[in-house]
Amino acid sequence: MITTRMASPDDAPELVRLRRLMFLGMHGRDEPGPWERDAERMARRQLDRELSGGEWLGAFVVDGDRPGPPHLAACAVGRIEERLPAPRHPAGRFGFVFSVCTDERYRGRGYARATTEALLEWFAERDVTRVDLHASPDAEPLYRSMGFSEHSIALSIDLSGRG
């Protein structure tokens, strides 16, 4: 049996470490930088329910059992976004999963599925009616087996050069 738990603010450094590993796997290159410090600070603040003013960030983890300092084996992290209600989304709450990663030492044990299922349950308990994510080619079969499918053509624009 896999034991998942809700991440705490103290897990922020490990969540960022796993996020960096996720990007390495997706892009084939390691990209350390100031974003890690900022991500850790933001995760710590958003996981502290008193500081953040609510439960908008959900993060579920599996603790690692290998020798060495305490570490996380896997995580699934997502956020609730409130939009205007609609006929099929009466609460106006949507979820976005933006970080799922299993440390390579723990792959093949079902940890990504377990943490993602815990996150989906967390979303459902908060009246989220649709959850979106971007899947890597390697992870797509996992998400499809959990019920994810295409629902529209996603378009995006990078505004970082404006302003």
Automatic annotation (TrEMBL):
Gene3D superfamilies from the xrefs?
3.40.630.30
**Organism of origin:** Streptomyces bathyalis
**Domain N-acetyltransferase residues, every copy:** 2-163
Q: Name one GO molecular function term.
A: acyltransferase activity, transferring groups other than amino-acyl groups
* UniProt protein name: GNAT family N-acetyltransferase
Q: Does the keyword Nuclease apply?
A: no
Presence of keyword Transferase: yes
What CDD domains does the record tag this protein with?
Answer: NAT_SF
InterPro entries to which the protein is assigned, alphabetical: Acyl_CoA_acyltransferase (IPR016181), GNAT_dom (IPR000182)
Transmembrane residue ranges: none
UniProt entry keywords in alphabetical sequence: Transferase
